[in-house]
Amino acid sequence: SVPGTKVELTVSCRNLLDMDTFSKSDPVVVLFVQGSGTSEWKEFGRTEVIDNTLNPDFVRKFVLDYYFEEKQNLRFDVTVFAAQDFLGQAFVALGEVIGAQRGRLERPLTGVPGKRCGTILLLAEELSNCRDIVTMQLCANKLDKKDFFGKSDPFLVFYRSNEDGTFTICHKTEVVKNTLNPVWQPFTIPVRALCNGDYDRTVKIDVYDWDRDGSHDFIGEFATSYRELSRAQSQFTVYEVLNPRKKCKKKKYVNSGTVTLLSFSVESEFTFVDYIRGGTQLNFTVAIDFTASNGLPSQPTSLHYASPYQLSAYALALKAVGEIIQDYDSDKLFPAYGFGAKVPPDGKISHQFPLNNNAENPSCAGIEGVLESYLQSLRTVQLYGPTNFAPVINQVAGTAAQVTDGSQYHVLLIITDGVISDMLQTKEAIVTASALPMSIIIVGVGPAEFEAMEELDGDEVRLSSRGRFAERDIVQFVPFRDYVDDSGNQVLSMARLAKDVLAEIPEQLLSYMKTRDIKPRRADPE
């Protein structure tokens, strides 16, 4: 997700243990975070101490960078200040707080044997100062003539100032040819890019005359700020363009022309967190490749082989991706299918058989439930073929098509050894699904060449079928082998896998909402 998604956590506790004999405890909460892929806890920060209460509402908040695609584990320790008595702790993933209803989560505190430690309440809010997007239009009058033959070819360059007084370029307008009175096209820019959320920070604008050889001539400059620009909503603002060198040299110098801000408007850009907090549910479906090319599950060379010491590649990929997604799925029930096998009792080939053998209700409880049903299926079905993706994609698309108001979004995880038999039908299915609230993640296991998968992942070339183009890119493909590192640090490599396959989901969800003009529901205040 976009770097810069910052989440603010507010902490309260209820019914804490009372350690003080004469008065109530003086609690403080310490937050520890776990680095990605390590089990080590580092102190991130602590709240203030509140004297003499068992139901503290802390004022000091924790501000964390939030990444949808990572499991961000948090540990809250509640202790008594001064005495350092331990009052209990809670473990929670940041995604669970954001995925909870209205971004509020209550957890029991544990860790003091034989005692009820009360609860901790967490509220997650996205820091919103920088979600706005500005659209503005400028024109100029009587700019200095810089070209020997024609008039100037002016363009503007915008810079934001940094904390240390340096400037960073943040926007260039187009060049308007051969005029001293240009009108530039309106353009949009995130407020974050213009002033990093600080409305009074200097924004510097340079006016140049474009030259083909790249040695653009400086016409002049002026400075403003976001706050000053935003006043133009009610009136035109006119800036004098000044050239300091000319000003020094010429006594009669007035200016090098003027720039007028013709219009300025701001709109809020909704984020992934807005939709999740507004109640959008992520529904996670799994489809696993049971074709014969995977090898007999009982043989160590098989991609489905699970030794007593090691999960199969299929199980690892399922766990890595599923454990993050499940934080955003309130019922934690995941429909799970297999494809490409002969299924008992009559040995028919199926491309969407429920792993739990229950056609009425193919949902499994939690990722553990999916893993259990997967292992059970391996023992009962016969691996066969061909490898058809379209049936299961169409199945999920059918469910996604039932609710298109933005309250449900579907993610289908297909794990496969990659030799696809129904490429044309699959492309057709994906192009149709691209208009629905769904995304598809494909994890390729084994040594195959995955060119077909790369084509389905429309990053390079937009996917099309029979002349129809996909409305949006909804497929993300990764080869599992890129994540199995030689050191054998599985935790770390699986965290990287999950990160890469899930990184595009927030953008894909937003692109669906945007094209349908669906705004997030406001989380109801309590």
Automatic annotation (TrEMBL):
- GO BP, sorted A to Z: cellular response to calcium ion
**Classification lineage:** Eukaryota, Metazoa, Chordata, Craniata, Vertebrata
Checking InterPro entries in the record gives: C2_dom, C2_domain_sf, C2B_Copine, Copine, Copine_C, VWF_A, vWFA_dom_sf
Protein name per the record: CPNE9 protein
Q: Which SUPFAM superfamilies match?
A: C2 domain (Calcium/lipid-binding domain, CaLB) (SSF49562), vWA-like (SSF53300)
Q: Which UniProt keywords apply?
A: Calcium, Metal-binding, Repeat
List the Gene Ontology MF annotations in alphabetical order: calcium-dependent phospholipid binding; metal ion binding
Keyword Calcium assigned: yes
